[in-house]
Amino acid sequence: MPLELFNTLSAKVEEFHPLEDNLVRMYACGPTVYDYGHIGNFRTFIVVDTLRRFLKQSGYQVKHVMNVTDVDDKIIRNAARDGVTVQEYTKKYRQAFLEDADALNIEHPEMLVNATDHIQEMAHLIAGLVGKGYAYRTDDGSYYFRIAKFPEYGKLSKKDFAGMSDGARVDVDEYDKDNARDFALWKAPKPGEARWETEIGPGRPGWHIECSTMSMKYLGESFDIHCGGEDLIFPHHENEIAQSEAMTGKRFVHVWVHSRFLLVEGEKMSKSLGNFYTVRDLILKGHKPSSIRFLLMSVPYRKQLNFTFDGLTQAANSVERLRNFKLRLESEPFPEGTSEAIAGTAKKTSDEMRSGLDDDLNTARALGAVFDMVRDVNAAADAGDVRKGDVLALLQVLQQFEEIFAVLKDDDAAKVRATVEWAKSEGLEDKISAETAELGKAASLADADVERLVAEHSQARKMRDFARSDAIRAELAENGIILENTKDGVRWKRK
Ligand code: AMP
Ligand code: ZN
Asked: How far is the CA of 115 from the centre of ligand 2 (A)?
């Protein structure tokens, strides 16, 4: 069965086939880097990760581009407030986004591109739209898209904009959800705020033009998949379609994939309700990155995920169960031979996992298959019915699972430790729970041990005892410590 995906544009589940050979070109709207990402953002990024991992597992080559929105009204305001440039302001949060993605085993896209590196190209696209009559300049030097000239406006969000007034405008990214207005492509500069000099004059881009420019630059005028959270359907993605298709006259994106919004304890996440969590908040409360990833993946992307702390505890138990199962397979001295029944179970699980994911990325179905296998094989092993010759096939099923779910590798402690160190460096010691401190301590080697080994390593080299120095280097590497030779001697860092 080929992969089937729900396409927001057609409002149907469709068989997926790439436009070109075996290559899948996909774009995902990335983070706006004015703060740390919250678990709602990461719910969407994990959905995208699931999709890209499954496409690769299905034999496709994937070219996945993600933008980093490192300029918008809020960023410009905050940077001006702090008296730093936009780039200086966003650097920390861009880095934090990557660290959080790593903590959750989210693969990096093939290209992660910054809006601020593409301002001239955005201005050029706007100039092109003006040339074709789809955009106009206002007296202050801003530019707007003329939606009355694009009759298909509304086709993604299924909104009927007939009878809208030509020339009514919005210049903020916060949009009136029911009324179409000509939207800002380019904003004239305000005193004291970041600006760029371009062929269409000075100013800064609107948010929507960013994604049209960068997606088409790297993926072509028509590409396969565009993803984001459901909040982006309107106006952001509707506007991307208008800008891109007005310019090229071609269909911009073939499949639009949108994930449902995450709720927390049944409510919309918001700072004022006190139910707003970043990945770091949860780790500091004592939760493992693998539990967070598991929970965010366990509900299919078109179903509403209600994030609860009970759910997080259950996710931790599920991960534990899977890890224990793998350990059992690797360490138990099973009797010689093979069992047809177990071989059948392995095959059935592998097939069901694949058809579950083919079914519009139904992660719950795939997980159901794996947990059935764990239950059945554990029972068979207790009864002495699992043989040495079955183990490889079972481990291969777990490998197939791990390629997508990525929770079996037990590296939580080192990640928690890194978060603890971050919290200390930010003066957030009081936020570190006792559980987190305990978990972090379990990380392979404490700094003091590393220092001791590094000193021993240097000493061994000085004595030309290379067998010893190599052995220490290997031990450190096993614990995720990398040694670097610098002109000031050996330095170490954690991987
Ligand atoms: P932002 O950093 O706000 O530009 O958002 C980055 C991504 O996270 C976008 O794809 C949003 O649609 C998505 N997103 C934001 N909030 C949530 C939420 N509560 N649930 C799921 N996705 C979200
Ligand atoms: Zn976007």
From this structure: 10
